[in-house]
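Side project, low priority. Logging it here so it doesn't get lost.
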Amino acid sequence: RDDARDYQSRKQQYFLPARARPSGVRFRTQPLQNRKEKENDMTNDLKEVIVSHLGNTVSAVGFAPVERFAQAPEQHHPAKICKNAQTVIVLGLQIPRGILTSPDYNLYGLHRSYHTAYRRLDEIALELCNFIEAQGKYAAVMIPSYAPMVFHNFEPWGILSLKHAAVRAGLGAFGRSGQVYHPVYGSRLRLAAVVT
């Protein structure tokens, strides 16, 4: 019973909205699977610096070692995107709940909200790349939140699957629909990423 309460307490800390979250708790990462992954993982100090730098500019941020992308299609693997890639940083920005309840204009508002969020996420990701590279030996490549896309058999693919990256970074889980659902924001989280 104490274990269940402790789990609920930790779960609440990780998934509280940014303004209600205790200081120092900004993200949830999945536990490391093996020692090799631990060796290649971005240092915790740099993660904390990145989280602190982002502040309240994003609703969620998570980190996934490149080893978690072993099943990714070859042309969409983080190692093909950034030379010597070690970590994928996934950023999420929420879309306001109210837009889903608008009686007459929800489709227009939702469409506009998405594209406003995509533009903002791209700007944040670009700035984060420059910040990471200023820290020293790191190279960083932003993954756009919406376009460009490549097409395989007339099916659009992003440079890197942001949905899979978000799950691997611990930001949510796949639902039956194939969408990623965050524990607090549900499917309202728009995504971008940085590979470093």
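Brief comment: Residues 1-40 have pLDDT under 50 and may be disordered.
Revisit when time allows.
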